[in-house]
């Protein structure tokens, strides 16, 4: 990689080399080349000053003789160890002798180093001698040694940094003209200051050099920008330096722009970062993958998907391939936006490019699919991780457990939880709380409390969320007093009731039918100084909507607006569901239109409520129009959408459409519900499509779902007529188990 040192407006190329202290070579300044001739100093502007002439202390006659003897001895007997050659002179040797001898041997670099090593073992060289060796090392292109020597100087014990710094700079400038005249020495010193965190001192040194017409190299200035950017407090300073240094003659490059683009994005100034990206082409600094990826990540964090996709396209047009950082950012954004299918497409593209996704990417996608309720797709990725030799961590396991709990599949969730232990992974508070919440929601409070005890025994402390989940579960079962006792225990442990706790209690009371107590609790919240939020009001509105009390629900909405609380899409979904359940479809359509006019994007649940009611009324034309409008607005159908549509089309005897939707949902990883299977099977029977009905019935059985008595009778008759007595008896046993035994069991409970 080529770069340049700037001197009096002229640019001189130089090449990178390695340096010490583990600093990456790509960040080290290019430190090769000689400086300008004396004539260039003479032609400099009147604003710059020449470097001082070097005039060391004059030796006495005796000193001159000693220096001459030492110089001749080490030159003539260079094959012998210096400790033997110079043994006779050790007692008379002083720091000044070191400088005078160096003047005689300065052009023999190996001899200079050997002599310097011999001298500093006997007497610590003075600052001037130290700077002279640094100058000689740089002039000999030994930048690593120069770097080490400067670092060694700062490593001295009990060193007054501020005092020594000014003296070092003074001696470095004083010895420059005679001993090296190579400006890269200033780059090395600038680096050491920056690496040591002396950023203010580095800036002062930069300004001081301008007085002599010297500008620090771009690569060293990039190192300075990077170190400024390491601290969030100094990000604005890095941007200020970026704007100021060109006036001093620094020519920034692509790396410089990338550093500032990153600083702007970290400050949330993504548009400015994007503007700089566009300006890079005009500056002659072609943006690279890092430039684009940083801006893309900035827009991802801001949630601006359209700009992200446009930048990716622009990147590809320039022949730049996204890297793992680019893909990770986009996948995370798409998952956050609920566009998990799109995120998986980027995962496949990423893998086609030969980039292996890491645990974070897979976990993000797994979590995304779980949140959509698509557990099958999540498990597929989970298995793929293992095929790729990527070991799932406890976060990936927690995501799967959370998804299973959301779907009410507690047996599978418990199985995954135990698998974690078998793999040596320790669940944390989130994992335990997720499983506890799942058991609470399914009404299995005994298992929930058992897990709570296991959590405590393992040394983990239940938090507010854990107690809230337990209290919520108790409220749903109507055990209000037990829930209150639990909350008192929580307070005794120093945990504060928060808005989430109250909202869970309100939700639990509403779910158990105690709406009056829920309203009373909301009043108690206010007395405790905890103001109800949008979730509190939405929860109560949902209860009123489900009981058909739309007037009370509307009154709560008005109170919520009067308090300055903003309704969410969930609030409107609650109202939509209420209108639909009450048969007020026109009001539901008006609400949908109002939401779109106000820029409130309906989600899948909004559309599902309307479609379900249209299907119930056997209005499939209206249902299809709503479905098309939903897809046109980029709202992706979920498992519930497909099940609603399939049952609707089956009821309307549109079996071709129902079959097509079934195939489509399976391809997307969604599962049919038992009622959807039953609708499809009966629909095909009515159309005399026995083969399709049989295929679905077998698929349903493989999924562990039970059909109804009518369907069992269909297939019992068919198998009996076909002479398949073994299958007929098997179906008979299955039907008895599913209906008679379960009915007896339910009566006992």
UniProtKB/TrEMBL annotation:
The keyword Aminoacyl-tRNA synthetase does not apply. It comes from the Eukaryota. One of its GO terms (biological process) is mitochondria-nucleus signaling pathway. PPR repeats lie at residues 253-287, 288-322, 323-357, 358-392, 393-427, 428-462, 463-497, 498-532, 533-567, 568-602, 603-637, 638-672, 673-707. GO terms for cellular component: chloroplast. Belongs to the PPR family. P subfamily. PANTHER family: PENTATRICOPEPTIDE REPEAT-CONTAINING PROTEIN GUN1, CHLOROPLASTIC, PPR_LONG DOMAIN-CONTAINING PROTEIN. This is Pentatricopeptide repeat-containing protein. It comes from Dovyalis caffra.
């Amino acid at each position: 990689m080529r770069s340049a040192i700037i001197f009096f407006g002229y640019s001189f190329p130089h090449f990178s080399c390695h340096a010490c202290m583990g600093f990456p070579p790509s960040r080290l300044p290019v430190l090769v080349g000689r400086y300008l001739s004396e004539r260039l100093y003479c032609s400099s502007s009147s604003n710059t000053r020449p470097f001082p002439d070097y005039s060391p202390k004059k030796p006495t006659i005796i000193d001159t003789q000693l220096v001459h003897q030492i110089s001749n001895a080490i030159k003539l007997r260079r094959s012998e160890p210096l400790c033997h050659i110079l043994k006779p002179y050790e007692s008379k040797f002083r720091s000044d002798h070191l400088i005078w001898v160096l003047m005689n041997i300065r052009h023999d670099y190996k001899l200079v180093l050997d002599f310097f090593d011999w001298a500093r073992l006997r007497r610590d060289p003075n600052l001037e001698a130290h700077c002279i060796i640094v100058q000689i090392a740089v002039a000999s292109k030994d930048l690593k040694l120069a770097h080490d020597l400067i670092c060694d100087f700062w490593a001295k014990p009990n060193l007054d940094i501020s005092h020594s710094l000014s003296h070092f700079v003074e001696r470095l400038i004083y010895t420059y003209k005679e001993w090296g005249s190579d400006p890269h020495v200033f780059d090395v010193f600038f680096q050491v200051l920056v690496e040591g965190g002396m950023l203010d001192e580095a800036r002062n040194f930069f300004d001081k050099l301008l007085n002599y017409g010297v500008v620090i190299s771009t690569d060293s200035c990039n190192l300075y920008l990077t170190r400024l950017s390491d601290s969030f407090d100094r990000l604005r300073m890095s941007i200020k330096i970026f704007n100021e240094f060109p006036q001093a003659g620094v020519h920034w490059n692509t790396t410089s722009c990338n550093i500032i683009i990153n600083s702007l994005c970290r400050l949330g100034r993504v548009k400015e970062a994007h503007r700089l990206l566009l300006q890079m082409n005009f500056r002659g600094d072609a943006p690279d993958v890092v430039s684009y990826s940083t801006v893309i990540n900035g827009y991802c964090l801001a949630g601006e998907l359209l700009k992200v996709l446009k930048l990716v396209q622009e990147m590809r047009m320039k022949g730049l391939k996204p890297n793992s950082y680019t893909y990770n950012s986009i996948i995370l954004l798409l998952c956050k936006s609920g566009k998990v299918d799109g995120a998986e497409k980027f995962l496949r593209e990423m893998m086609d490019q030969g980039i292996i996704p890491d645990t974070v990417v897979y976990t993000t996608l797994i979590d995304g699919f779980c949140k959509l309720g698509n557990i099958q797709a999540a498990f597929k990725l989970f298995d793929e991780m293992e095929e790729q030799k990527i070991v799932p961590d406890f976060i990936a396991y927690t995501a799967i457990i959370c998804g299973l709990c959301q779907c009410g599949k507690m047996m599978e969730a418990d199985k995954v939880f135990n698998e974690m232990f078998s793999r040596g992974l320790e669940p944390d508070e989130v994992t335990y709380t997720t499983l506890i919440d799942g058991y609470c929601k399914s009404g299995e409070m005994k298992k929930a409390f058992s897990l709570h005890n296991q959590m405590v025994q393992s040394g983990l402390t239940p938090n507010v969320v854990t107690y809230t989940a337990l209290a919520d579960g108790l409220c749903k079962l109507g055990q209000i007093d037990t829930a209150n006792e639990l909350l008192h225990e929580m307070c005794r442990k120093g945990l504060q009731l928060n808005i989430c706790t109250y909202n869970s209690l309100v939700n639990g009371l509403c779910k158990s039918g105690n709406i009056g107590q829920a309203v009373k609790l909301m009043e108690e919240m206010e007395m405790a100084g905890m103001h109800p939020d949008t979730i509190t009001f939405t929860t109560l509105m949902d209860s009123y909507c489900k009981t058909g009390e739309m007037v009370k629900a509307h009154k709560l909405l008005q109170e919520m607006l009067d308090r300055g609380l903003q309704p969410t899409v969930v609030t409107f979904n609650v109202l939509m569901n209420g209108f639909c359940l009450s048969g007020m479809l026109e009001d539901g359509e008006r609400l949908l239109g109002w939401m779109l006019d106000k820029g409130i994007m309906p989600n899948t649940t909004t559309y599902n409520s309307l479609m379900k009611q249209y299907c119930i009324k056997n209005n499939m034309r209206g249902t299809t129009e709503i479905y098309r409008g939903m897809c046109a607005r980029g709202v992706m159908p979920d498992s519930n959408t497909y099940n609603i549509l399939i049952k609707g089309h089956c009821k309307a005897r549109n079996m071709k459409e129902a079959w097509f939707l079934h195939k489509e949902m399976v391809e997307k990883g969604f599962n049919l519900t038992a009622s959807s299977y039953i609708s499809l099977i009966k629909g095909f029977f009515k159309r005399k499509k026995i083969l399709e009905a049989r295929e679905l019935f077998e698929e349903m059985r493989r999924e562990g779902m039970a059909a109804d008595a009518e369907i069992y009778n269909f297939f019992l008759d068919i198998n009996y007529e076909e002479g398949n007595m073994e299958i007929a008896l098997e179906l008979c046993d299955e039907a008895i188990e599913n209906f008679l035994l379960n009915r007896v069991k339910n009566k006992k409970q």
